[in-house]
């Protein structure tokens, strides 16, 4: 095997294990139904391979030997096919998970009927896709849809290309403006992210970002665009965090959050941003020694975490406990200990090695500060004996 093929094979092996590890129980169940759709058999090699890679009990050499003996090419083909089938199963299972995916589904159906020269049906699905994409302001997808509608207009008299071309021009103008802002924000955010946490960047970079945001938000049509407004929020909040200007951050977040709520900008699609804003605000209030206000904000965060059927609850529950602990560590040490103890028993937190490590370390530090060295040692031992301890970063 050449060196290039070796690294490609190794990369593929690592990737399929990562994909399998990321699957939820429901996704695993759906995958096995998908794999068994044509021929249900207890001896299916793809399911055996999936189970072994998921359990991680055997090395790939042993699995290959069990399935194909010395024929590694057949094993590699099976593994590649399994990776493709996992992708197809996920797409099928989550085909209606988001408005974006529903719009893409309509677009793909339109393409299918266009190839069959069923132009009327293709037009029907393109209109559906356009409507969905417009509702979620997906300018990139709209640009593709308009191009397909123009292509369809060449094949039928039922579609007027003039209206579509004019609409596409307006969409393209907004898309180009947004793309320019995206490009600049991407570069500047990368520089901020790759610097040391909260280390001041050169004023020229910060001024350039502020000037760009001001230039794009000065136009009424862009300033009122929800996509632009959320991008401005992300840019400004990162600047203030990077500068550790928590007083300005608190003021900015309060005003922005209230304005977004008033204008009904928060939806299921950007719900994570809403929870992020509340988390930032709680932490800014804590940094500004407004502990009671931070706790009130934490309860607002908890209410928001329960929205949309607890869709992002698991992702933010650690931050919620963290906010409670830090504030109560100042206001009420006994209460802070209860918060940590509760968090240490939370199943969601325990499933995440980093979050679980943080809670156990906090408990160890808490008991150490209280000069209860026996309990502090107990927390460290629990951390070391945790089954996921070996998977943590070596430095940690």
Instruction: Output the number of helix runs.
Output: 21
User: What is the architecture of the largest domain at the second tier of CATH?
Assistant: Alpha Horseshoe
Task: Give a short account of the largest sheet.
Answer: none
Low-confidence stretches: 195-205
The SSE string, one letter per element, is HHHHHHHHHHHHHHHHHHHHH
The CATH class designation of the largest domain is Mainly Alpha
CATH homology-level superfamily of the largest domain: Tetratricopeptide repeat domain
Query: What Rg, in angstroms, do the CA atoms define?
Result: 26 Å
Our estimate of the beta-strand percent is under 5%
Number of strands: 0
Which fold name corresponds to the CATH topology of the largest domain?
Answer: Serine Threonine Protein Phosphatase 5, Tetratricopeptide repeat
**From the structure provided, what is the oligomeric state, counting identical versus distinct chains?**
single chain
Look at the helices and sheets and give the structural class: mainly alpha
Integer count of domains: 4
- What is the terminal-to-terminal distance? 37 Å
Arithmetic mean pLDDT: 83
The backbone outline, from C-alpha atoms, is flat
What's the helical proportion of residues? over 70%
